Amino acid sequence: MKLRVCKWSNSLALRFPQEFVCRAGLKAGDTVQASLATDGTLTIRTEPWDRRAFSEELAKARDSMQLSDSVMEELHSSARY
């Protein structure tokens, strides 16, 4: 795929076609990692999943949720056998 390097303020930018972005699973605001090999090869990869950051985010969400009565206990108490 050929991409054009465009000027964006004081930087340069690459614009990817929407189909490519969808296939790569990218969205606006995502972080990617770029590396340059000695032969000039440019590699762009999606940033690896950060398990620790996800765990911290999950703990914050869990702490903000209120616990309620158990639905299973309610079902069992009204069950007819």
Give an account of the 3D structure.
This protein has 81 residues and is of the alpha+beta class. It has one domain: Pemi-like Protein 1, Chain: D. The chain contains three helices and four strands; from the N terminus they run E-E-H-E-E-H-H. The protein has helices spanning 18-24, 51-64, 71-77; strands spanning 5-8, 11-14, 32-36, 42-46. The strands form two sheets. The chain has a two-stranded antiparallel sheet with strand order 1-2. The longest helix is centred in the C-terminal third of the chain and has 14 residues, at 51-64.
Sheet of most strands: 2 strands, antiparallel
Helix content: 25-40%
State the CATH class. Mainly Beta
| Beta-strand content estimate | 15-25%
**Model regions low in confidence, pLDDT < 50 over at least 5 residues:** none
Count of individual beta strands = 4
Overall pLDDT metric: 88
Radius of gyration from CA coordinates: 24 Å
Q: Give the ordered list of helices and strands.
A: EEHEEHH
Number of helices: 3
Strand order of the largest sheet: 1-2
Q: Classify the secondary structure makeup into a structural class.
A: alpha+beta
**CA-based shape:** elongated
CATH topology type: Pemi-like Protein 1, Chain: D
End-to-end separation in angstroms reads 66 Å
